[in-house]
Each structure stands twice: as structure tokens, then as C-alpha cells.
Fold each of these.
Amino acid sequence: MTAPAPAPAPAAASTAAKAKSAPQKAMEKLGLVRDIDLALHLPHRYEDETRITPIGALRDNEPAQVEGVVVDCQVEMRGRRQLLVRLKDESGSLLLRFLHFYPSQQKQMSAATRLRVRGEARIGFFGREMVHPVVKVVDDTTPLAQSLTPVYPASAQLPQAYLRKAVASGLARADLREILPHGVVPPGLPSLKDALNYLHHPPPSAQLAALEDHSHPAWQRLKFEELLAQQLSQLRAQRERALLVAPALRGQPGGLHERLLGVLPFQLTAAQQRVCEEIAQDLARPQPMHRLLQGDVGSGKTVVAALAAAVAIGAGWQCALMAPTEILAEQHFRKLIGWLEPLGLKIAWITGSVKGKARQAMLDAAASGEAQLVVGTHAVIEDKVRFAKLGLAIIDEQHRFGVAQRLALRQKLKAMDLEPHMLMMSATPIPRTLAMTYFADLDVSTIDELPPGRSPIVTKVFTDSKRDDVIDKIRMAVADGAQVYWVCPLVEESEAIDLRNATETHEELSATLAGTSVGLLHGRMSPADKAAVMAQFSSGQMSVLVATTVIEVGVDVPNASLMVIEHAERFGLAQLHQLRGRVGRGAKASVCVLIYTPPLSDTGKSRLKAMAETTDGFEIARRDLDIRGPGEFMGSRQSGAELLRFADLQEDAPLLVAARALAPQLLDRAPDAAHRQVTRWLGTKAEFLKA
Ligand code: ADP
Ligand code: MG
């Protein structure tokens, strides 16, 4: 019995002053506000109410619709109270069984009533039966549905029947005229209007499989439209940015940049040279650079950043270097000081742990321009710091920053009327298709080679029953002069418990490895204590470091060659890869041991498998994308990711390529159409894609 649904109000009225009904609010929550939003809300599956299957031809466990006359209807006790209705047609009879029911239902299905019933049949104790089918009272003239019945993604407050009506009327009202000029859509695809009508109300003959796996041409058309809108909005953002003015920063012969190259203790790899050249070309232009430098953990991004900073500073401008954590900022600081200070640079150090007078002095140095390089955590830089002449901002581990944060940062960093250049660095490479969509507005440089002399990391996976054996391995490694990380997981909801775990593990290892220096590092320690522990570990005085994920990003101790990650099943793939990247930085053969507690979930299994099979960050990123899908891959804060509702970046790469090729042409030749396309698809969300 389908409950009669109240007729939904036109979508436009939902913004009116009168109180909104619960379903209206639920629709808004799903983003179903404009007619076009409703028209673009597509079924995720269909029910076939277009035909009647004879009861005698029913097959087990397959959804079907039958029609017949009730011959018997009663409540019986069979283990529990239930309503049993026997339905008969010319070909046979079927038992309908209801474990929950209202007296009204019993009345409605009384003997001699004609019923149309939909559900899955199966063989029960008393012959063929359907449990809790959908039931409709009919007569001989009740027509069958002419098209498949759509089932829409809904929510608890939004009944399917209400949503169906709302979508049908939204679809009827929406302006679906073709925006795209003739001949630009890939051949063989229907018009948008035909595609939508088809997908909302497919004919009985439709290929359900092609509809449900989205390979049908109607789906292809929608995905193409969506990808095109997204490409257009990115392209627009890119062109807007190109109108902004930035200082042209050029390295001079014999300048700071060349002097830094002269004092480096190593030769740049070919990949490092190439990306340095790409960055230098950008910096020399009077438009702001917006470049992502990606390179696997340990590929040597820091020195590339230092060289870019040297170009900016050599040209008379300031450079800001931001990192997500203090530990990482501190690492940069030490490395950069080691390289740049002998060249006569003044560096300001701004993080939460620099306080009082010292802090004010640093802020003053940044504001006056006396400090040419400002290093710190992003939080501090966002709030307080003023620059005299900021030419370049470098953000490390950019994936840790959300879209909104990046936008805010750009505003903040504006000096005078000029935009600074921006270099973002990430060890989590963005797979190509993602880069082409979400980061179409970002130029990408890739370091695809590790510095020479690294030995590959061997990864081993054990259950926690092998924990003692692992501790034995540590003892042997330490006796051999190795340094070891032991990582304990941090589960956000129970930081206290984790802290206890880390502390207990520290005590346990200190006791079992008597005579060995075992340190502890976690997020609740004061920055000074953290720095002290890191210094001991870096200098080799400490052999084993028990840590929570505070060491996840950027920590660089080349002598560390063994890493144990406990409860590895609790970590994400990118995080595991980042952690593992802390070893394998020196010449020593390195080992990463992943200890897990069974049972493993399927995704947990594929994560650990990926870790054991490859150390290539790009391969890891691809698999991560497979496991999690693009939305999660990008991180929840980057909710711009949700904008791709239909297209699948893996499967629809050809459509993406076509959309990408069309976008610039359309923007040049039919800017008005381009604008309408973006508005139709993205509404007000388009801003989000600019960050
Ligand atoms: P990441 O890309 O993960 O930030 P780092 O910049 O921390 O990597 O570099 C990792 C280590 O490799 C550092 O100790 C760094 O000094 C060293 N390194 C960087 N480039 C080279 C190179 N061309 N040759 C040798 N060692 C290098
Ligand atoms: Mg780094």
C-alpha cells in the first residue's frame, strides 16, 4: 500500500516565508532547491511495474510483480502472530506474509479483493511466498506503469513517493534547452532533455544493466555535461588569476640562488633540476604562480623549496614557508638555516612555541622586511603576520589544508596590490585524472626520482601474535647501530587511551630493551620537549623512538632504518605511506613492519596488501583512490570533491579528455553559453573550485 503523498510545493516556493515541511527541509539538505537540481537528481535504481508475471512463472529471489484475487486472509499464530493472505491467478497461488501489519491492512486485503503485488518470491514452508511485498488494490482496468519506476536517493525524512512527485514536477518545469552549440557533444549521445527524460522514466524495454552501471548513452551525456561544467569553472578561475599581478622574480648570475647551489652538500637530481627550472620560469613572470610540487616522500622537495626561496629573496622580496606542524616547521628551519644563514640571510621563526618578546621581535622583523625568510606553522601565519614585501609563499604538505583555508591564505598574503607566488608541496601525488579535474587550475611539477644511494624499503605484515618476535628484531637492529621508530595509532575520539598506549609501549620497550635509549614523542608534549626528543633521536643518542603520528610528515633522520607500525589497520593508506617514508632515507637497507590485529576489514586488507606490494607513492595514490573514491581521497574538508556526482574519474577518462578539450574553445567562442553551463550545473558552488 503506497501511502498517499501530499503534493509537493513547487521548489521555488520552498524559500518563501511560510514554514517548511520536513520533506522540504530534507530536500534542501540534499541540495534539491532549483527545478534543475530536481531534474538532475537521478534514480539509483528502478522498479519494474510495467508488467505482470503469472504466479506460476515466478522465480525465486527475483523481484517481480503479480496480480491476483485474494482467496483467503487471516491472522495466524505460527511461532508469532502474522497476517497470511493467499493470492490466486490462473497460473497458481502465492502466500503473502506480513509479520508487522495494521488491522486496516487486514481489512483492505479481504477475500475477493484484486491486488497487484510486488516483491521477491521464495519457497517457504507452505509453498511459494512473498514476505512484506508492496501491495496495491486494483480492478481490471487499473493501467500498468508505462515506464520503469525510478527509485531516488532519499533520506529518512523524505518519503520516496514525495520525492518522485517533486522530481517529476521539477523535471517538467526545468529549463532543459540545449546550451551547447551544435556538434560539440561527443557523437552518439542524446540531447540533455532526452537523456534526462529517459533516465527518470525509462521505457520497459530499457537495458537495466546499462542504466545501473551508468554506461548508457543518456548517462554518458550527463557525465559529459557535468565534467564540462567543472572544467569551465576551473578554467575561468585560472583566467581570473592570470589577470592578477605578481612581482616578477628573477635569479641573477652570481645571486643568492647560485650561491646556495654552490654550498649544497649534494648534486641535484635531474628531476629536481627540472622542477627548479619550471618554478624559476613561473617566478620570473608577472602573474602569480599557482603550482603544486609533488614528489614521493624523501624525493627532496625541501631543497627545491629553498632554491625557490633563494630566487625570491635574491630578487629583493620576502618568502614565507609554512608547514602544518611545528615539528615539520622546525625541521625546515634547521635545514634552511644550515643552508641559508651562512649566505647572510635573516630568518624569522614563528610558531606557537615562540612567545612574548621573542615572538614580537620575529613579527616585527617580518613586518619591516628585515627577515627575508619567515618559517612557521600555517595557523600563526594566517592570524598575525604582516609582511613588508611578500613575493613567494611556500606551503608544505598542502593536502593538509582545506579549500577554505587556502582561499583565506591567499587573501592574507596579499602585499600591496600584488599577489604573491604560491608553491604548494605534497608527498601525496594526485592521480592524473584527479589533477585534470579538481586541480585543473593548478600547474603541477613532479619529482619522479629519488636521490641516489637510497636502498628500497622492505615491508612486512604480521598479526599482533608476532609482536614479541618483532621486539627481538629491534634488539638485533639496535645492536647493529640502527635507529628505530615505533608508531602507535592515534584514534581521534580517544586521545587519552592512545596516549596511554604510547606511554605503555614506551615503558614496555624501555624494560625489554634494557640498556637501550628509548624515547617517547606525542602530541600532548610541549613543543620544547618534542624538540628535545627529536634532537636526541636525530643526533643518534637515542636508538628507539616510540611515537604517535606526530612524526607522520616530513621528519628526516637518515640513519633510522626500521619502522614498526602497530595497529596498522587503523591507518589510512596515504598515512601509512607517509609514515613509512620516514625510513629508507639513508644507505642502510630499511624495513617497515606493519602489525595488525585481526579480523581485517576488506578495505583494511587491501590497504595492507598495497603497502606490502609497492613503495611507489603514485601507485599507492592510485590504489587509495580505488579504495576510497575521489571524495574521500581529497579529504572531507575539500568538499569541492562532492561536486562530481555522476562522472567516475577512472571510468570516464575519455569523457574527461573531451570536456577538457572543449572547455577553452567554448569559453572563447561562446562565453555566455559557458557561463550558463556552469550555473546550471554548479549553481553557487562554483566558487569552491577556485581555491
Ligand atoms: P621530501 O621530499 O620528503 O620533503 P626531503 O626534502 O626531506 O624530502 O629530502 C629527503 C632527504 O634527502 C634529505 O635528507 C635531503 O637533504 C636529501 N636530499 C635531497 N636532495 C638530495 C640529492 N639530490 N642528493 C642527495 N640527497 C638529497
Ligand atoms: Mg618534506
Note: The chain has five domains: 6-49+150-175, 51-144, 178-245+661-691, 256-447, 457-633.
Amino acid sequence: MRRLRRTEPLRSLVRETSLEPGDLIYPLFLCPGEGVRRPVGSMPGVFNLSVDEALREAEEAARLGLGGLLLFGLPEEKDEQGSGAWDENGIVQRGLRALKETAAAKKLVLIADVCLCEYTSHGHCGMVVETRDGWTVDNDPSLDLLAQTAASLARAGADVVAPSDMMDGRVAAIRRALDDEGCPNTPILSYASKFASAFYGPFREAADSAPQFGDRKSYQMDGANLREALREIGLDLEEGADMILMKPAMPYLDVIRAARERFGVPIGAYQVSGEYSMLQAAFEKGWLDHDRAILESLLGIRRAGAGFIVTYFAKDAAKLLA
Ligand code: PBG
């Protein structure tokens, strides 16, 4: 076996998996204001950005040849229903309209995350109601809000909408709203298989979206379940999802592989905040080699079967690959 490992050109010739800047999607957290570049404590190198700063990031992303951007928003105010999510003048809507004016946007796929948790005062991804047995996240009334959100983001210029809330039936509701509201060509990238994960911890600081009570286990999936993940994906595809996003990535590589083998649609994976932060922590301590660990973590996700990867390392990786 070692004959083919002898030199880099030989290794390169027989390499089975590729990693390219165009495979990578870079998440941005938009916030109100101007000239704002607020560091996220638990995610070194990640910032809350006002729209003007986000435009600069988009330029760099395009220059580096990244595949696209995934947009999240921190609204000025939150309420019970999360009305900032579908506000025509909401933070992501404004960001999209500004981005669309730039040359950079023509080279990037602008993906808008669709969820309520950054916009609700309680931090849950759907509507919270009181029942006899305590509070619950009410599925069906949430669908309307999510569908309105998706349509408003598409109208503002999102090339793709990506629901991450995990309500049942949301893909169908969103598809219907997009079709009815003049956006029949906007594809849906569904976070079909999203597990209730400890690895979202740092994101909740970045997006200010931690649930104020309880957890997300009644809507996000149990990490023990592979068959259920495949059912979730199958349902989302039946409802009209065009692509699926697997999340988190590293603890669920087997799920990505199984989905790749079962379904013919484009599949992305999200190397989530906790995966990023634990590597960053090890880099800060000098325990892992920064460049090699970044590329290896991403290559592993590609090898598992993901066509594209959402990662906070997108810019770093693109520079290493240049
Ligand atoms: C919104 C959403 C979350 C992430 C993406 N969209 C947080 C959550 O579900 O709690 C996590 C991304 C990351 O950790 O990087 N629902």
C-alpha cells in the first residue's frame, strides 16, 4: 500500500475525496446598528455584525470562492410570537436587500435560516402555549408563522430558505406559502435531521436564542435514533424539500452516510458551533494543529457523504485550500 503514498503528487492522484472553497457555506449573525462587530465570547473569530459589516464579509467570502452564506438575525426586540422573524423590515430581510445590491452576492448562494428562536422572548423555535400539563411548543399554529417568515425572506432576496425549527409539516407549509406568494422558484433546504444537541451551546450565545425554560427535546431529534432520522428526511422530501441539511456533523457522520446512500437529493452538513468552539479551544491551548485539524474535520464530513458544509471555518479553510 505504501507505494501510492510515497509522494504528494501520487497521494493527490489517488485521493478519493475533495474539499473545495465552493463546498463551504459561511454563517453570519446580523444585528442592528452600524459599524458593529461584536465578538461572540464562546466562538473566537465569530461576530455579531451590523449589515454594513456583513457586506464586507460577503465581499471576502466571494473573493475566497465560498459557496454561500447562511444568515441568522438578532432582532431589536423579541416577543412571544417572534414577529421579528417575518417583519418585512426585519434584520435579515434588511440584510438580504442590501446584500442583493452587491456584486459579491452574484457569486454566492444566500441562504436564510428560518426559525423563530432568535425572535421569541422564550427562545423556543415555535409558539409556546400553556396546557393542563404545563407549557408545550404548539406545532400547527407555528407553521403559519414559519411559512410567513420563509416567504418574507424569499421576497427580500434569499436564494434558498432553510427551516431549522423541526416542527412537523413545516416544509409543506413553507412550500405552499412560497408558491402562493410569488416565490415558486425558491428552493427549500430543510434541516431534516436535526438532533437535540449539546453542541449548539455556543450558537445560542451568538444568536441570543437559548430557551428561557425547558429544552428542545420535544421537537429536535433524540441523538440515539438513526432510523427516525431517515423517516424525518423522507417526510421532508415528500413535503417538497429540495435539499437536506444534517446537523450536527461530527457526532452524526453515520447518519450523513446513511442519508447519502438512501436519498438522491443534495445533502449538506452543518459543522455546528460546538464543533467549532471545541477545536478553537484546543488551538488556543496549542493541543491541536490549527490548519490540519480544520481540514481533516471538514474532509471527514465530505467523506461521510455531505456535498456541502456549513462551517464557521469556511474562510480559514478556503485560505488553506487556495
Ligand atoms: C435555530 C438554529 C440553531 C442552530 C442553527 N439554527 C440552534 C438551536 O437549534 O438551538 C445551531 C447552529 C450551531 O450550533 O452552530 N433553531
Note: The radius of gyration is 19 Å.
Amino acid sequence: MNKNANRLLIIDDEPEICNLFSAVAERLGFDVRTTGEADEFIRLNQDFDPTVVILDLHMPQADGIELLRCLADDKCRAGILVVSGADTRVLGSAERLGANRGLNMLGAMQKPVQLQELRGKLGDAKTAQRGFTQADLEQAIATGQLLVLFLPKVAVHDNGDWSVEGSEALVRWDHPKLGILMPDEFIPMAEETGLIKPLTAFVLNETVTQMRRWCDLGLDINVAVNVGAQLLDDLEFPDRVSDVLAQHGVESSKLILEITETAAMGDRQTSMDVLTRLRLKGIELAIDDFGTGYSSLKQLFYMPFSELKIDASFVLEVAESHEARTMVETMVQLAHNLGMSACCEGVETQEIWDFVASVNCDKVQGFLISRPIDSDSLVNLVREWQAAGRTRKIIDVASERRSRSVVTAE
Ligand code: C2E
Ligand code: MG
Ligand code: MG
């Protein structure tokens, strides 16, 4: 019996596509099965009972239309995404055909599939599965059901020591019935409905409130807040950010805004205006998930960033893959050559940390240092690191990733 509420079945005859889609889905919390065989697909549909199916329309033994017919005969209730290299009209008619047969069609994606689109569609599928509405999310923002955790960020000093210099604010929804929901489960809905604006305002306000507290405790911690494309279409956003900072008496240089490029990124002139004004106000900007296609070289070229965040998908592979090592090293150099600092996300083991340090990465985040934690735990962590003095050893607890990583003095 499968316990995970999110089960994805992928049928595609290209194993690379299966692997890539699996990696994205697993990061979103799905259990995944893949196959390139029609017979096995039918069997898995019955045994694995997926909540979402990704179906390639071009299969050697049976085409996707035949498979949709089989799913309808099996009274499949999963959400179905069709993918194909065929033009959008073919995809559209496959989707309508499925819907006419009573299947729950989630949409169609044209190959090559943008990973961000896939992430969004899988996030939507989880949302539909979880069963909360736009009104629920609106109420959650208004009534304080959202909470903000902080992912510590450590930085290297000239003498080779590392210290906790800051953190990244990550939102969670403490849903009264469903428990803690992760951002991938509700941010796509917030973006589609415009609720991302009040959500970001909440996160910003909560974060700056905590920053004030840390200052009062004598701790020097900067914080990064994630900002979606829609905020960059709003010319008043920089003023609202500086108002919040001024209200709490927090220095603007302590705030970093993390930005990715998304397909939704609207008017380039407006976003340039917004980003440049944020920089003029002394707020730092980081380009997030660099190297994934959510963030592009072109954007790096045009926008005034001070930090480049290398996506975890590269960093997690450095121990096994020469290509990943080359990519990470090159991205660190690119950041430095453009006068930016480089931060590696997804540092889960000492081996990964050693590698990224050896290629002169300035900052790291990851489960080896800590999982996202609340404000009090962050204060304790910063103090533990300060108490540990100049040398410290990170005990690798990768085998216990589910529990918190441990930091000790040598
Ligand atoms: P992100 O900005 O790239 O945030 C980093 C994500 O990687 C976090 O997931 C974090 O928990 C995870 N992570 C950190 N270290 C490791 C590691 O060593 N290994 C692995 N496998 N993962 C690690 P989280 O909290 O689920 O956030 C996911 C995404 O949701 C964020 O990606 C960000 O794009 C978005 N998000 C989170 N909070 C907000 C928010 O307040 N506003 C907006 N607009 N987006 C947010
Ligand atoms: Mg981020
Ligand atoms: Mg990131």
C-alpha cells in the first residue's frame, strides 16, 4: 500500500526525459514510477494507483490516444498531463479527447518541456489533490496561518573560516486541517491569482520584524526574501519595501531580494525600473536558481545583481558528475568576473562543501548546515557558531537527512 498522497506515473520512451521529470517531481514530494512500455504502464496504473500521470503521445507500441482510451476504460481518476513534440493543435485535441472521455486532464506540454512549466503543473496538481481554494489561501494570508522559516547561509572569510552571515526566508502554510504545506504546493496558486502580492507583503513584514529582533540581540544577520516576477511589474514595490524597513528601523543593506526569471516576467522596462530603484535604496539583489532556465544569462547581463545563487540541481551532483563540477566552478567564476558573490544551494554533504569551497564559492546553504528553522533556532545556531570560534567541524549527518544537521566545535 502506497502512503504518499502524491504519486506520479510517467510513460515516455526516452529514459532521459523520465529521469529529468522524476527528479523535478521528487523534489516536489512525489513518489514516482516511470516506464517506456505500454503494457507496464497499464499494469502500474492499476497497482501504483497514481494521482498524476504524464503521458507521452508518441510511444512505439501504442500511441497516447490509445493509452488515454485504456485509462478511461479503467476509470482512472488521476490528473493527466499529455506531452509531445507535435504542434499545439495536436496536443489540444488530445487533451479535449481525454476530457470528453471523462478523464481529469490537467493540460498539455510541448517538448522540449520547460522545467518551470512542469513544476507549476505538478504544483497545481498537488493543490487540486489537497483540496484548498483561492479563498482558503486568501484567508490564510489575512489571518496569519502563514509562517516564515529561515534557512541559514554561511559565508567564508579571508582566513578560510566560515560563519553564519545570513539566512533565506521561506514561507510555509500551517493549514488547520492539512498540516504544514510547502511553498511549491501554494505559491503557483498565489501567482496565478495575484495573491502573491499580499503573501510577499506578509513574508517581508514578518522577516523585517525578526531582523529588528536580531539587531536588538546584537546579532548581525542579513536575510533574503524570494520575490516573484509579478512584484517586479509593480512600480510602487520599492517604496513599500523601504517603508517596511524604515518602520522597523532596519538597514536596507541587510535585505536581499532573490529573483528568478519566469515566463510570466512582463514588461522588461518596468522590472528594470523596479530593480534599479531597489538597488538605489541600498537593497541587495540575488539571482536565484541560476543555471536552471528560471534565470538566464541575459537577465544577469541586464540587471544589477550582487549575488548569484547556483541551483541545488548542479550542486547536489558534484560528487558524482564531472560535468556538474565544471558547471559549478564556471558559474562561481562567472559571478566573480561580474563582481558578484556566489552562493551554492543544496550543500548536503561535507564532500560537496569541500568541493564548492575549493572552487572559491563564497557562501553556502544546505541541509548539512541546517534545514529551514524558526527565528529562535536561528539565533541559537548563530550563537553556537560564534561560540565555536575560529575552527569548527561539520558532522556529516547526510544519512539522517530527515533530522537536523549538527554543528559542533572541533
Ligand atoms: P529557493 O528560493 O531556491 O529556496 C531553496 C529551497 O531549497 C528551499 O525549499 C530549501 O528548503 C531547499 N533546500 C535548502 N537546502 C537544501 C539541501 O541541502 N538539499 C535540498 N534538496 N534542498 C534544499 P522550499 O522551502 O521548499 O522552497 C522552495 C521554493 O519556494 C523556493 O526555492 C522559492 O522559490 C519558493 N518560495 C519559498 N518561500 C517563498 C516566498 O516567501 N515567496 C515566494 N515568491 N517564493 C517562495
Ligand atoms: Mg531563493
Ligand atoms: Mg534557489
Note: Residues 196-216 form the longest helix (21 residues).
